[in-house]
């Protein structure tokens, strides 16, 4: 981008952020990428999620829920620390005695390094809403496979002032497990379905092949392979910049990455494939606000009719 | 308790846990106090929360939402590390370069201490759903004060096999800010209202004065003071044991603890008081299951009519 184009983005970004706060949609905290959702923002998020569930009611997805933390061993087992060490959140706690507790409080009260007295717990923050699903389905799948849906909070350590880049946000995910053909056909069908749904909401959505933010030099090769094999797609909508639209929905075909590790097998006994898609709920809300304005009451009638039926 | 009574509790606990898993209500993980919510369990939780919102629709509570992490400085500022260091969850991440990233992956893959390469981030896990609310309302309250409601995931580091003692769970909270009289009258009214609501669901609920699990020897004095001043109440329902019922709802009158720190003042300018109440959603669901059985379809008609209207 030229310096002028960058200036325009920065200016638009600042105006958008200020508008979100001024309209009570975002309640800022002292930490970048961590903010409260105001009443209207949370309503948009809930309404969009309800719309997705209504539109997919006939699919027969089985709803489950998992907390925002998961076993540390699961993160280790999935190779997340090879691929995305920069994004992971590890939970540490104090497990000491009375005297050590007083020392910790003294350090905390005096601005000292009280965290040195902590130790890693058995849990980490959940980086993707579907991760805890896979180990729950070790073994044989029923005929036709499985379709699961979860709504979960996920964590990514990437502090930013960009309102769409949150450290903690919600994903509505659908997870398909079955034969390779079944899973790919499901993913392909959803690409169009996701586009249609977002376009009916008036969003200028388009899809593209994508790559995960793999870490470091070797990560660049991983990302290139992922693009070449067309394993990840995203649906993009301009929020901060027309030139660099924001991913509001992503589709991942894991092949046998998860099913191999957890022994998820098709009815015939062969290792199954898995794929998932996830709507980033805060990002969809921000895309709607960017497109239709800060006042949901003034959004186009057809958009309102879909969200507030 | 006598040894026989303890045996009975242990036996009942095991049978209850096994029943929850056998009925698909609980999806266990490798970590104690961290489990997935099966379809029927999640439905009970959602239905109870919807019931609470329906019953309180006339109160005019303003809904907000906050992520499961909050600023580290907020935990420090609130004195949480003086009182509950043993429960806090601190989020640590990797912020190193490419070479350090490879070292971290090597350590993780070989079972080494990869956590030594992490550093504390700006966030911690939210220990109570109301904590992020207070700093958002620094300044003058409107006439009559404020009533806020939030649904949030909270973390307590207390690994346990006891199904009601979770490391990560949801609280539906209501937060009242206003003059001391207003706040105490609201808290007192809710004590009866909460009991009534839970009893209409067939739960043998009773209320009692309570204390928070303050840490260490000096914590015992804090707890005694809290009881003496009647600052905390709980609504209790037998889940694991008749003799030691489980708190499913708690009421805290903070006096000026939060409002003083964040400069929350009444319309007249004096420091306001705050109080909150929170339903532990997973605990209410477990109390319903313990009372009415593992199959919600077979629960009493009047209970079903309230939850599935």
UniProtKB/TrEMBL annotation, chains A, B:
InterPro entries in UniProt: aa-tRNA-synth_II, aa-tRNA-synth_II/BPL/LPL
Aminoacyl-transfer RNA synthetases class-II family profile domain residues: 148-309
Protein name listed in UniProt: Amino acid--[acyl-carrier-protein] ligase
Top-level taxon: Bacteria
Key words, A-Z: Ligase
Enzyme Commission code: 6.2.1.n2
Entry's Gene Ontology molecular function annotations: ligase activity
Family annotation (NCBIfam families): PRK07080.1 (NF005479)
């Amino acid at each position: 981008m030229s310096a002028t184009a960058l200036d325009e983005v920065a200016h638009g970004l600042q105006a958008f952020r200020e508008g979100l706060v001024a309209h009570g949609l975002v309640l800022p905290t002292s930490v970048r990428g961590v903010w409260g959702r105001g009443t209207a923002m949370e309503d948009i998020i809930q309404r969009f999620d309800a719309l997705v569930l209504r539109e997919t009611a006939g699919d027969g997805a089985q709803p489950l829920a998992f907390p925002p933390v998961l076993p540390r061993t699961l993160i280790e087992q999935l190779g997340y620390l090879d691929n995305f060490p920069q994004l992971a959140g590890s939970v540490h706690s104090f497990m000491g005695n009375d005297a050590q507790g007083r020392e910790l409080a003294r350090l905390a009260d005096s601005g000292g390094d009280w965290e040195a007295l902590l130790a890693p717990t058995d849990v980490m923050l959940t980086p993707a809403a579907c991760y805890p699903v896979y180990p729950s389905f070790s073994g044989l799948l029923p005929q036709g496979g499985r379709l699961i849906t979860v709504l979960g909070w996920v964590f990514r350590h990437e502090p930013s002032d960009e309102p769409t880049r949150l450290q903690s946000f919600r994903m509505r995910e659908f997870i398909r497990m079955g034969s390779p053909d079944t899973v790919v056909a499901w993913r392909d069908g959803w690409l169009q379905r996701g586009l249609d749904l977002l376009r009916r909401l008036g969003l200028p959505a388009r899809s593209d092949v994508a790559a995960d933010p793999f870490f470091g030099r070797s990560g660049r090769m991983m990302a290139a392979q992922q693009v070449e094999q067309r394993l990840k797609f995203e649906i993009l909508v301009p929020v901060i910049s027309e030139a660099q639209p924001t991913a509001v929905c992503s589709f991942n075909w894991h092949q046998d990455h998860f099913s191999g590790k957890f022994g998820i097998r098709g009815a015939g006994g062969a290792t199954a494939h898995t794929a998932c898609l996830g709507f980033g709920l805060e990002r969809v809300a921000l895309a709607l606000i960017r497109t239709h304005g800060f006042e949901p009451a003034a959004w186009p009638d057809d958009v309102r009719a879909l969200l507030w039926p």
